[in-house]
Design brief:
The protein has two helices and six strands. The chain is an alpha+beta fold.
Length: 105
């Protein structure tokens, strides 16, 4: 969703070894994004959605990552097959600002 690449291709970039549950750390996530040419900012704490700026990967309660476009108020949750939404009941804990290679920054 963020990179336009299929999940299997992105998952192949993370070495989960023999784990059956695929947990990803911020370090692994940053490594994949960097390898794909994305820039990431520093990890920031979020107590509400109002704390999140720009486009960000957000870690929410329940140990789940979603993508949030704060500029347009759109939530992209990979666990929701119906697509993007304008509302989320999830509670943000922290986030990583990201910038695509095409943005030229």
């Amino acid at each position: 969703m963020l990179t336009g690449k299929p999940y299997d291709q992105l998952a192949g970039m993370i070495d989960w070894g023999v784990q059956t549950n695929h947990y990803t750390t911020w370090k692994e996530l940053r490594g994949v994004l960097t390898e794909l040419g994305w820039q990431t900012g520093g990890l920031r704490k979020a107590e509400s959605w109002g704390d999140v700026c720009g486009i960000a990967v957000v870690h929410v309660e329940g140990d789940h990552f979603i993508l949030y476009d704060a500029d347009n108020g759109v939530f992209y949750d990979p666990g929701e097959p119906d697509g993007p939404d304008l509302h989320s009941r999830l509670v943000p804990m922290n986030y990583l600002p990201v910038q695509s290679p095409e943005s030229g920054a």
